[in-house]
């Protein structure tokens, strides 16, 4: 059996081994290589590292090209810790398709096609149903969470966004404001880091910024000639008008997020991602793709944008680059449109993506060829994914089910 | 010869001289024939031969000599050779010695007179020497020393002609010798034709080891090989004989196939080609027109992305809202469904009273109406999707209609939907006299054209005006069975496709402007390019014809890519794409670039075959339509699904 010279390296100081080339069998698999490294670590540290299985990435992909491999060369192999696979926890049944999900450490908020939003406990218990929209709820967001009083947003196909106040002690929900102004279905909302404003993107190509602070006065509506009686009876909460409107997209806005308190990022069906100054409404830069964008996500840890579009790829972008909008990386493994992407809030290399091919994939950007894990629990299209701070991955889709997975955060982080 | 002294001649040749002698001899006997110099044959049938001086007949001498006598005479008479017959008298005359001598002399070309010397020295009367006493004393003529006037005139004419350029002075002759170059036109590198044409006679194969009388054992056939050889057709045998082994050359028998093989060889030589056939060496790939690669023509739909499931029967017709957010589909299960394009979610289902034949979303973005045709009814639906303001404005527009004073007698009854129908979205119901097959909107969204195919009837196409609730029958009579109609996207033209022709009418001038010959048996569908100058027609005989209206009334290009009948064709509103759906279950997307330059013909490249629909009841794809803003194509099929390809 042919042997290959390999040198192992890692960026994690905790698992450093001597920088000497080893001769390993050419047909080694990942498990064999992890065994080698575990043995080395054991010998070095004198401790049992059985739990620390290692995932190994080939920087040079050398192992796969052994037919033409120059035997004298040394393969450089980077190794990182292996994470345990995400463990499925709950399966929460809904009455209809789940269009959006947002969870924090305690509660899960989902929007559904049955025109309601729901609040669930982490154990999958229905806590509250937020009903009031006249059409499909397209997006939901938490504005503020406190012990008893929480604020949440729901955006709907009926062209409104509602701001709700939820009293968790008395378990009552109250519509505080009804945000009117869009002339199309509101597909996305995002709350700014200061939690005082939020931005919404709509099918009418507009981005609007609203105040997220509940007040007791109603905003003036500049529509004197419209008969308002009918609406008044239907409407819940006080009417609110937008603070600002950003126009610039040529097609429907599909996803919007705040990069920081001053900067907005929006993705659209016109194949562009645009960056806006939230204060002035100025358009700062444009990233142009070739397909319709369904979803974007931004990680402040690695300062990268991930986008899901109407093809099979998850693409990573550098929003700061001024010289042309180049795709840094594309992650290809899905078989359908990528409908949702979400970066890990705690890990700079990991993200999760959901697709129309019913699979949620967990990616590590260091291994762009294949995902780390495929989470194939859904039986129909996946429409939304989320990843919470405490390591919970959520995905909802057209099979009316919301799945949650416990994904253990890095052992190293816990230890360190 | 002194007789000749006074004559210019001095004698006759033999014949004449004989005659002369005869006359002499006659004269001596005094028998003179007076008939003169006439052909004596004239007297051939008479007993006499002429008349003498006294006018008496001269009778022919009795000649009873026959051939035998003549012969005997010839043999016996020593003077036979000098006996001649006198033609004038018929008598035989024996020539004397002098006469014979004379005849000889004349025959030799000598003078008759023996004494005549023809070579006597001649004396010149006129000599070149100037004599003191000239022979004549005549003075010289005047003209011999005066220049000739005629010549002067002739020379003058020539000089004039030369001056005028009528006569060119002779060119100076080239002094270098000139040779004809025999090989001038021949290319030195080319092989001469006769060499090129040379085909050598086929060579005979040289005998090998197997022909040997004592071949090596590996050439001898084993028993199985021999059996196989015998069973093989003689034509396919590798060897025409069986290799055999003999002990010595003496034991080799006569070769039984010798004559046969010689004959075959003669045939080979006789039938071998003597002329090389000149074939044009064309690479077949060069004949294929150079088309750009589909890869370079992106974007176009390539994969199936979404399937819109929900209908339980074939989906006849689909239409996308002008914003591109909604899709409407009409099916044979008597429902119309409204879908969200991006998620394939059915948001609304509206039941109607029959199998839906056609749906069409109003292209005006400020009006939210969908025309649905089933049986003999066209219903205008307000789906309530999209902008609420637009929906309510549409409802107001319909409810604000005021009945005009004069009620016109219309073939179509307009009614406002009420009750449960109104709840579902029905707004206006149009009852037609016949089954409506197709509905199509004008680009402004006020006019609606309906097709009621009925051969020979005058009421096949009606145009409704929704705002005034008025119906017009634009044609007094229709030729043929109308298949589909379409409005021109910009100009006031109206396209009517019958089974074999597409007629283009000018609605303002109310006249026929063009008649397009589709060259196919039965047109099924038609689409107008958003620029308005190009039309595609799908037909039931598997063809798609592209017409360039500026170019000709015949198809600019006919594509035969589908294996079965085409059901639907569509153009994209912005991208240079068109698609066709067929009974073979496939949608073919083609790149169809139209240039603003009138000189450049449209570029048509088939780019993708999209498959996905299952064939049900021999029907595949029934309708195709493009997304208004994205390069996506929707197709509806007989399997009850609508599919989105992106």
What would your notes on this structure say?
The complex is a heterodimer of chains A (416) and B (646). Chain A has 416 residues and is mainly beta. Chain A has three helices and 33 strands. Chain A has helices at residues 30-45, 229-234, 411-415, and strands spanning 3-9, 22-25, 54-58, 74-81, 87-93, 98-103, 107-112, 116-121, 126-131, 137-145, 149-156, 161-167, 172-179, 186-191, 197-202, 206-211, 238-240, 244-247, 253-258, 263-268, 272-277, 283-288, 293-299, 304-309, 313-317, 327-332, 338-343, 350-355, 360-364, 373-375, 382-387, 392-397, 401-406. In chain A, the strands form eight sheets. Chain A has a five-stranded mixed sheet, with no helix packed on it. Chain A has a four-stranded mixed sheet with strand order 2-1-4-3, with helices on one face. Residues 48-69, 223-233 and 410-416 of chain A have low confidence and may be disordered. Chain B is α+β, with helices and mostly antiparallel strands. Among the domains of chain B are: 191-271, no CATH class; 299-309 and 483-645, YVTN repeat-like/Quinoprotein amine dehydrogenase (Methylamine Dehydrogenase, Chain H, 7 Propeller); 314-402 and 409-478, YVTN repeat-like/Quinoprotein amine dehydrogenase (Methylamine Dehydrogenase, Chain H, 7 Propeller), CATH 2.130.10.10. Chain B contains ten helices and 33 strands. In chain B, strands 10-11-12-14-13 form a five-stranded antiparallel sheet. A four-stranded antiparallel sheet of chain B has the order 5-33-32-31, with no helix packed on it. A four-stranded antiparallel sheet of chain B has the order 6-7-8-9, with no helix packed on it. In chain B, a hairpin with a 3-residue loop joins strand 7 (326-331) and strand 8 (335-340). The model of chain B is unreliable at 16-28 (pLDDT under 50). Classes of the chains: A mainly beta (416), B alpha+beta (646). The interface between A and B is medium-sized, with 24 and 19 residues. Chain B: Component of the PeBoW complex, which is required for maturation of 28S and 5.8S ribosomal RNAs and formation of the 60S ribosome. Chain B: Pfam families: BOP1NT, WD40. Chain B: Residues 43-301 form the BOP1 N-terminal domain.
């Amino acid at each position: 059996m042919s042997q290959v010279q390999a040198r192992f390296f890692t960026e994690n100081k905790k698992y450093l081994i001597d920088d000497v080339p080893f001769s390993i069998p050419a047909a080694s698999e990942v498990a064999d290589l992890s065994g080698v490294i575990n043995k080395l670590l054991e010998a070095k540290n004198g401790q049992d590292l059985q739990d620390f299985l290692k995932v190994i990435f080939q920087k040079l992909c050398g192992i796969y090209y052994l037919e033409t491999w120059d035997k004298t060369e040394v393969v450089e192999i980077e190794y990182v810790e292996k994470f345990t696979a995400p463990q499925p926890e709950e399966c929460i049944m809904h009455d209809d398709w789940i269009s959006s999900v947002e969870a924090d450490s305690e509660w899960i908020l989902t929007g559904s096609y049955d025109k309601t939003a729901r609040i669930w406990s982490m154990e999958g218990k229905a806590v509250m149903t937020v009903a009031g929209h006249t059409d499909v709820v397209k997006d939901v967001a938490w504005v503020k969470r406190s012990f008893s009083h929480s604020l949440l947003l729901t955006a709907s196909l009926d062209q409104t966004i509602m701001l709700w106040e939820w009293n968790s002690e008395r378990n009552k929900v109250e519509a505080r404001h009804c945000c009117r102004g869009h002339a199309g279905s509101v597909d996305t909302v995002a709350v700014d880091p200061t939690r005082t404003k939020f931005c919404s993107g709509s099918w009418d190509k507009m981005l609007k910024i609203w105040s997220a602070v509940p007040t007791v006065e109603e905003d003036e509506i500049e529509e004197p000639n419209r008969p308002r009686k009918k609406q008044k009876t239907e409407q819940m909460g006080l009417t609110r008008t937008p603070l600002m409107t950003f126009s610039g997209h040529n097609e429907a806005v599909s996803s919007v997020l705040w990069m920081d308190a001053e900067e907005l990022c929006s993705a659209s069906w016109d194949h562009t991602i645009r960056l806006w100054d939230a204060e002035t409404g100025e358009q700062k830069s444009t990233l142009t793709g070739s397909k319709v964008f369904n979803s974007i996500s931004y990680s402040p840890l690695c300062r990268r944008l991930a986008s899901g579009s109407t093809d099979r790829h998850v693409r990573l972008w550098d929003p700061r680059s001024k010289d042309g909008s180049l795709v840094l990386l594309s992650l290809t493994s899905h078989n359908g449109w990528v409908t949702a992407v979400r970066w890990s809030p705690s890990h700079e290399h990991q993200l999760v993506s959901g697709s129309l091919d019913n699979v949620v994939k967990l990616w590590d950007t260091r291994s762009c060829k294949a995902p780390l894990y495929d989470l194939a629990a859904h039986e129909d299209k996946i429409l939304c994914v989320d990843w919470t701070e405490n390591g919970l991955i959520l995905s909802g889709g057209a099979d009316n089910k919301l799945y949650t997975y416990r994904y253990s955060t890095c052992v190293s982080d816990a230890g360190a | 010869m002194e007789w000749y002294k006074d004559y210019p001649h001095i004698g006759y040749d033999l014949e004449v001289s004989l005659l002369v002698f005869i006359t002499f001899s006659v004269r001596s006997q005094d028998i003179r024939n007076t008939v003169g110099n006439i052909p004596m044959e004239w007297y051939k049938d008479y007993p006499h031969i002429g008349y003498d001086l006294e006018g008496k007949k001269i009778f022919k001498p009795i000649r009873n000599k026959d051939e035998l006598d003549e012969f005997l005479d010839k043999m016996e008479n020593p003077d036979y050779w000098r006996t001649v017959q006198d033609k004038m008298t018929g008598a035989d005359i024996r020539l004397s010695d002098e006469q014979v001598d004379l005849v000889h002399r004349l025959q030799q070309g000598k003078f008759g007179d023996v004494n005549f010397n023809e070579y006597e020295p001649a004396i010149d009367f006129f000599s070149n020497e100037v004599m003191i006493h000239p022979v004549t004393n005549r003075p010289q003529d005047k003209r011999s020393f005066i220049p000739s006037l005629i010549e002067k005139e002739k020379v003058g004419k020539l000089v004039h002609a030369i001056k005028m350029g009528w006569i060119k002075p002779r060119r100076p002759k080239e002094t270098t010798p000139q040779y004809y170059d025999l090989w001038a036109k021949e290319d030195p590198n080319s092989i001469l034709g006769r060499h090129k044409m040379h085909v050598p006679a086929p060579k005979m194969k040289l005998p090998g080891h197997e022909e040997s009388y004592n071949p090596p054992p590996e050439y001898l056939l084993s028993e199985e090989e021999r059996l196989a050889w015998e069973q093989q057709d003689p034509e396919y045998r590798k060897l025409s004989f069986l290799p055999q082994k003999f002990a010595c050359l003496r034991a080799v028998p006569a070769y039984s196939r010798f004559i046969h093989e010689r004959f075959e060889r003669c045939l080979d030589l006789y039938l071998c080609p003597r002329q090389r056939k000149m074939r044009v060496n064309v690479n077949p790939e060069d004949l294929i027109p150079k088309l750009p690669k589909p890869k370079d023509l992106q974007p176009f739909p390539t994969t199936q992305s979404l399937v819109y499931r929900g209908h339980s029967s074939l989906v006849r017709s689909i239409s996308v809202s002008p914003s591109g957010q909604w899709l409407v589909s009409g099916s044979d299960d008597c429902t119309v469904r409204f879908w969200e394009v991006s998620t394939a979610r059915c948001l609304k289902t509206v039941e109607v009273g029959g199998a839906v034949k056609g749906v069409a979303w109003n292209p005006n973005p400020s009006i939210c109406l969908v025309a649905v045709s089933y049986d003999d009814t066209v219903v205008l639906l307000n789906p309530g999707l999209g902008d609420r303001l637009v929906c309510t404005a549409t409802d107001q527009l319909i409810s604000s209609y005021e009945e005009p004073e004069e009620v016109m007698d219309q073939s179509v009854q307009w009614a406002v939907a009420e009750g449960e129908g109104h709840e579902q979205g029905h707004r206006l119901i149009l009852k037609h006299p016949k089954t409506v097959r197709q509905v199509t909107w004008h680009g402004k969204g006020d006019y609606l054209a309906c097709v009621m195919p009925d051969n020979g009837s005058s009421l096949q196409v009606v145009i409704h005006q929704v705002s005034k609730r008025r119906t017009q029958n634009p044609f007094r009579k229709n030729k043929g069975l109308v298949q589909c109609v379409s409005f021109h996207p910009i100009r006031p033209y109206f396209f009517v496709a019958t089974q074999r022709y597409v007629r283009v009418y000018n609605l303002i001038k109310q006249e026929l402007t063009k008649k397009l010959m589709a060259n196919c048996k039965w047109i099924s569908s038609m689409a107008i390019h958003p620029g308005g100058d190009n039309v595609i027609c799908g037909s039931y005989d598997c063809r798609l014809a592209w017409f360039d209206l500026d170019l000709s009334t015949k198809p600019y290009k006919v594509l035969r890519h589908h294996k079965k009948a085409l059901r639907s064709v569509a153009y994209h509103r912005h991208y240079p794409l068109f698609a066709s759906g067929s009974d073979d279950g496939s949608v073919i997307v083609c790149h169809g670039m139209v240039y603003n330059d009138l000189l450049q013909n449209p570029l048509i490249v088939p780019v993708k075959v999209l498959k996905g629909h299952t064939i049900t009841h021999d029907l595949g794809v029934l309708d195709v339509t493009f997304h208004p803003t994205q390069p996506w194509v929707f197709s509806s099929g007989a399997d009850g699904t609508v599919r989105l390809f992106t």
